[in-house]
Design goal:
The complex is a heterodimer of chains A (262) and B (208). Chain A is mainly beta. Chain A contains 2 helices and 14 strands, in the order βββαββββββββαβββ. In chain A, the strands form 4 sheets. In chain A, strands 6-5-10-11-12 form a 5-stranded mixed sheet, with no helix packed on it. In chain A, strands 4, 7, 13 and 14 form a 4-stranded mixed sheet that branches. In chain A, strands 1-2 form a two-stranded antiparallel sheet. Chain B is mainly β and 208 residues long. In chain B, strands 3-2-7-8-9-10-1-4 form an 8-stranded mixed sheet. In chain B, strands 5-6 form a two-stranded antiparallel sheet. Classes of the chains: A mainly beta (262), B mainly beta (208). The interface between A and B is large, with 100 and 83 residues. β3 of chain A pairs parallel with β11 of chain B, so a sheet runs across the interface. The complex binds fe (ii) ion. Chain B: InterPro entries: Intradiol_dOase_C, Intradiol_dOase_core, Intradiol_RC_Dioxygenase, Protocat_dOase_a.
């Protein structure tokens, strides 16, 4: 890699773009554990008995981590990214109509194409369609609360839904989750696998959420908050929120080091 | 000031929560929504290889099975080849095997099962032989970032003894936490495993 390469300007962001070396299929960049929540985070009580106490064993990526499942449009149905229609029985679901869109990128700033993004959420009243959710807010007969999409060639994805409501949960007696959408993302290798949650700009429950505040890094937390994207809204139809997801970058293999004789 | 590198930062992980099934296995949440669903069955009738069942539990720090855990597995086919363009090894691809599946634990017993085939030994890019193994990723309520581990096979003693990853584990006794035990039940091959999140027999988890 040429350390002297000049940084290009990204006119949209008015800052230099990250360097994007030729797409490689070497190991992934070391995960920066300081931006992720620690396994043992006592403020989120469920983590106490479910967190490993030994050090993770550092594993230089082998072919088992560099590879991962490949998905295609054959895996999806035509309504999978439309949560307003994909479970509608006799009308639209109740709630604020929104579009959520963004890109799946890697740490070099490159879009991650053709990768599977799955999402799930509570309904507008904060109730999940799940046999274990007993919150008193009603189930919406026209809302399932899940969907999925494949990113396009540039890493772009979008889906339509209603804005989820906040809901109470058993951590402290009076703990409430800010409105959020759960995301599951694959990337190209199994070591990029990630589950996260998207929050909504301006939600006053964000700074007091015991799950969100497991994240030790303020900037990392802010990056989970989707801004209102008025330019992407559809007049007289729906608002839009923008949520980009960054997966680990991947090293190029400039030189193959093979054992002699192979 | 030197030139800025300006790499982006990875998005922070968050727990999958107790309702992960809605998004990833809606039938377990109690409803039917998608035309096509992902499952814990990795094989079709035409997949090549020895049929096996992987069966196990994930235990918390008190030894209690997690009943809301979700596991995904990723593995090579019977010829030791991953169904992915980055694997350029010599084994034949099998169009009838993606090599990936996901399973939620039973809401009462905590049991997790996969119907798959036993993977072949893998040749890494450096030419190293690696013992047959299945890569495992674990998420649940209370797990803040997905846990990566592996399952090896009890009847592969020689290959396991030479495996470069198992040999990275300093204490030989901890290597055993990754070995699934083979048995036969009603003519079916079952490999049983236990994943301990904590305790004296804590499973080896990897920072991949
Ligand atoms: Fe949630």
């Amino acid at each position: 890699m040429n350390a002297q390469a000049p940084a290009l300007r990204d006119p949209r962001l008015n800052r230099p773009e990250p360097l994007t070396p030729p797409l490689g299929d070497g190991g992934f960049f070391q995960r920066d554990r300081a931006i992720h929540p620690p396994a043992h985070a006592p403020g989120y009580k469920s983590s106490v008995l479910r967190s490993p106490r030994q050090s993770l064993l550092s594993l230089e990526n082998s072919i088992s981590e560099i590879t991962g499942p490949v998905f295609g449009h054959n895996d999806l149905g035509p309504l999978d990214n439309d949560l307003i229609r994909n479970y509608a029985k006799d009308g639209d679901p109740i709630g604020e109509r929104i579009v959520v869109h963004g890109r799946v990128l890697d740490e070099t700033g490159r879009g991650v194409p053709n990768t599977l993004v799955e999402f799930w959420q509570a309904n507008a009243g904060g109730r999940y369609r799940h046999r274990k959710d007993t919150y008193l807010a009603p189930i919406d007969p026209n809302f399932g609360g899940c969907g999925r999409a494949l990113t396009d060639d540039t890493g772009y994805y979008y889906f339509r839904t209603v804005k989820p409501g906040p809901y109470p949960w058993r951590n402290y007696v009076n703990s409430w989750r800010p409105a959020h959408i759960h995301f599951s993302v694959f990337g190209s290798g199994f070591a990029q696998r990630l589950i996260t949650q998207m929050y909504f700009e301006g939600d006053p429950l964000i700074p007091v959420c015991p799950i969100l505040t497991t994240i030790p890094d303020k900037d990392a937390l802010d990056r989970l908050v989707a801004p209102l994207d008025l330019n992407a809204s559809t007049p007289f139809d729906s608002l839009a929120y923008r949520f980009d997801i960054v997966l680990r970058g991947q090293r190029s293999t400039y030189f193959e080091n093979r054992t002699a004789g192979n | 000031m030197p030139q800025p590198l300006n790499y982006l930062k990875e998005t922070a992980s968050q727990t999958a929560g107790p309702y992960v099934h809605i998004g990833l296995i809606p039938a377990m949440a109690g409803f039917d929504i998608f035309e096509k669903n992902f499952s814990n069955v990795l094989v079709t009738p035409n997949t090549k290889g020895e049929r096996i069942t992987l069966e196990g539990k994930v235990l918390d720090g008190t030894g209690t099975p997690l009943r809301d855990v979700l596991l995904e597995i990723w593995q090579a086919n019977a010829a030791g080849r991953y169904n992915h363009p980055a694997d350029r090894s010599a084994g034949a691809l099998d169009d009838e095997f993606r090599g990936w599946g996901r399973a939620g634990s039973d809401f009462d017993s905590g049991l997790v099962t996969f119907e798959t085939i036993k993977p072949g030994a893998i040749t890494d890019r450096t030419g190293r032989k690696c013992a047959p193994h299945v890569n495992v990723w674990i998420v649940a309520r209370g797990i803040n970032i997905g846990l990566n581990t592996r399952l090896y096979f009890s009847d592969e003693e020689a290959a396991n003894a030479a495996d470069p990853v198992l040999n990275l584990i300093e204490q030989p006794i901890r290597r055993k936490t990754l070995i699934a035990t083979r048995s036969e039940r009603a003519g079916k091959v079952v490999y049983a495993f236990t994943i301990n999140l904590q305790g004296p027999e804590e499973t080896v988890f990897f920072d991949v």
